[in-house]
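re: ur question from the group chat, yeah i did fold both. here u go
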Amino acid sequence: GQIYVNDIPAIQNKPPEHIQIGEEFNFAPNIKDLNEKDPYDQDKPNTHTCSLVEAPQDMQLNEKTLIWKPTEADAGTHNIELLVSDGLAETKKNFTLYVNDKPKIISSDSLTILVGDTLNHFITAKDQNTTTDLTYSIRTAIEQMFLNVKTGELIWTPKTEDIGLHVVEVAVSDGFDTSIDAQQIKIVVLGYPSFL
């Protein structure tokens, strides 16, 4: 007779750790198994079955590939457990997937200020990931304009030579490469009316 020595299947590749809302998540496990033949029929190749033990509600397993397109309601961390079996033994792969919401600037993009007054404008961003630290940045030629990178507060005291229209570009990031939103802010500086 023959003795079948079974090698426990193992998942070799790592799934993505994070994904943006609206992007499609795809993960096909690369299964390593030293057994080339089926344990019950040596004329057939060894095959594996995959099943989801724990996953987000809409995640699907399609021919050993995990597929999911998260929505805004899915922002945050999700635990996923994938089970692979060769018919004799099984192995589990546990991992977490972070669904990131790209921050969106929702504050006004049009401001007016009088010469000599101090502009205190907070750039406000909406982000479904409430624990994310947002960082603000600015591009401007105005030397005396300041931006607090943590709070998004824009501070500027225009002078007489600043009367007119100014356009500055501000941006917000949550630390992910593809998660940046930019906004152009139009600032009109008005002078005091002169009396004859």
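okk and heres the other one u asked abt
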Amino acid sequence: TTPSAGGATGPGAWQPAAPYRFQELPRAKIAEGKILRSWSRQIVASSVTVIARCGNLSELLANHPVLRGNALALIAAECGQLLQRYPHLNASPCAGGMYVYNDINIGIAIDDGRGLKVPVLLGMGSRPLAEVVAEVERFLVRYDANEISPADMTGGTFTITYLSRSGGLSLQPVLNQGQSAILAIEQDAAASTPLV
């Protein structure tokens, strides 16, 4: 797990915690990144919002023998599969390239009024759905009991923010250091329409 040429090194240089491989970017991509960074200083930060019409998803989740209404577990399991197909979303940009993580470790943001905690589901590329459901439920119980430890929140390579009961129409998630993407989902309470 040592960075190749172009990777950050030296005291104070950020290094990914999870095992990774360094992938060098072509010069054209490096130049494109420099242009995008220069533009980012001149424009307002933005995000993409997609209205997803999910029909009777709540009913399907409630009647599923494994999920038992747990949408967050379903989203985490699906993200684990998708990150295997699109590994550059399970990575971290760095000078001259990116650190592509070997493992898919998905943080699930939980905030039910007692402070934000982001416990991490480890090894999400190959976990059975029942196991994911059980671990998400365990983290939710531990959140309610204020028992999520710092160790539970380390090693994330991708984050999901799912605010199913917030009732808002706007969400601005914060990208964690060492990650290249975050999936934010919020449900419009009035319309029962998830926003992604």
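fwiw on the second one: Helices lie at 27-40, 57-63, 71-85, 129-144. The beta strands are 20-24, 91-94, 97-101, 106-109, 120-121, 158-163, 182-188, 193-195. idk if thats what u expected
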